[in-house]
Write a structure and sequence with these properties.
Length: 174
């Protein structure tokens, strides 16, 4: 197992059936509870352990999830309300080194994720086939990204980082 990608890399196959979308929406819905469970009982010291050598600490990962998922939700809203908008990329590594991510209480980000994902799921459940084909332009990659792709990627993204935390717990027996 590649410790950087404990559930493998995200793979997207183009045409997404409705059943797959429903599965991804369910994963986005369940994500905050699974994250809460993954970090439950960790001490402040354990939160500051990196999930792998050279990797982010558990604390940084939790705060990164809030930062990243806020950006994704915003990108959904932009794509739904504008014609293929160019989004603003952000430097996630720089965000992860700001004081709120370095020392902040993870419960703040968990609560934020609970509220954000509740809103996000309401939005996702209201979308139709045409909506999921809408796109935004990512200037960093030079690609247009469909909401189908972004939905799948963020379902994967949450599971990917939860697996970082749970794999660390298993390795250290904590």
């Amino acid at each position: 197992m590649d410790i950087r990608y404990p559930i493998g890399k995200f793979e997207f196959e183009g045409e997404i059936p409705a059943a797959q979308r429903e599965k991804w929406i369910a994963e986005i819905s369940e994500f905050p509870g699974k994250l809460k469970e993954a970090v439950q009982g960790l001490s402040e010291e354990q939160l500051d352990l990196p999930y792998r050598e050279g990797g982010w600490t558990v604390r940084k990962v939790v705060h990164h999830l809030a930062d990243s998922h806020i950006n994704s939700y915003t990108r959904f809203k932009l794509a739904l309300t504008e014609e293929k908008p160019a989004i603003k990329p952000y430097f996630e590594d720089r965000w992860a080194n700001l004081s709120d991510a370095l020392t902040g209480d993870i419960q703040i980000s968990i609560k934020l994720l609970e509220a954000l994902h509740t809103r996000w799921v309401i939005l996702l459940n209201s979308l139709n086939e045409v909506d999921f084909k809408k796109q935004f332009y990512h200037p960093e990659s030079g690609q247009s990204i469909s909401l189908d792709y972004n939905l799948g990627f963020y379902a994967w993204h949450g599971n990917h980082h939860i697996a970082h935390i749970t794999a660390l717990r298993e390795r250290l027996n904590i």
